[in-house]
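Dear Dr. H.,

I hope your travels went smoothly. While you were away I took the liberty of generating a structure for the chain from your last submission, since the lab meeting agenda had it listed for discussion. I wanted you to have the full record in hand beforehand rather than looking at slides cold. The sequence, exactly as received, is reproduced here:
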Amino acid sequence: MGDPLAEQAEYLLQVGTGQFPGDDIHRTGDPRRFHVFCVSNYEHATRDHEDQRDPETTILTSHLMNPQFCLEGWYSKHLGKLRGYTAEEIQWVRRWQAGSVMGNPLGQLVTEFLQANCPDEGDLV
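The corresponding predicted structure, in token form, is as follows:
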């Protein structure tokens, strides 16, 4: 079944804005730029393949489980700080980018699983 939190996080980072503080604005975004994976019961990690200078970024799994959590905004602030940007510069880069929230990937997975595996109306249970 995979890791629906990691999959949703990758999706949001890849299809979102495509631009983070310090990115080359003339470069076309790589659809496989990010890899998100579980490292423990409490943390996930994000690997950004575009910038090898930055280490893997860990994020609390509880953040990813929060349906209102804006991963793009969090990552932009984190990356901006790592790259030496001020809060005002980070805000300027993100001025047109609202960013999507995590939503409920676990609930969506359960719904899809049940819909795919539930008996049809005429089946005996």
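Two observations you may find useful: The helical segments are 4-15, 61-64, 71-82, 87-93, 105-117. The longest strand covers residues 43-48.

With kind regards,
E. W.
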